[in-house]
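Issue 218. Parser rejects a valid record. Input:
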Amino acid sequence: MATKEATVAELATQFRESNAVLLTEYRGLTVAQLKELRTKLREDATYVVAKNTLATIAAKQAERDVFGDQLAGPTAITFVHGDVVAAAKVLRDFAKANPLLVIKGGYFDGSALDADGVKKLADLESREVLLAKLAGAFKASLFGAAYLFNAPLSKAVRTVDALREKQESAS
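Output the parser choked on:
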């Protein structure tokens, strides 16, 4: 009984501290395949196999009780503590290579996700790519502003030059 309570407390802590929670069904995967998946997820997430009843109790305690019937059957929980998109990509790619891994859904940014939601999350570009695009957009905006500020000055210079040439040709 004490170990179940400790497990629920640990799971509840992980539910609370995670950026996102992604659920998968792992039925039919070998221990070696699960180890490979854990290794691939290690940088951004923790992959845990837990009893559904204990996970349901822990999710309620952590106020993350949004999974509905997703916590049924052999379920593994991916607690994401790093880049959510990167973890979703790892799961998606691993599921493509190992069709026995089925993405069920999850929780991200205050709401429940279905399997399609997790796949859409995996289709997003990584944080670094998005930041690079944002920096490029800022740079383009600054270049446009600099051009806009310089345009009246260059126009004024061309006008003064034209007037000077006109005056010189008239004399």
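Fixed in the parser; the record now loads. Strands lie at 20-25, 45-49, 75-80, 102-108, 111-114.
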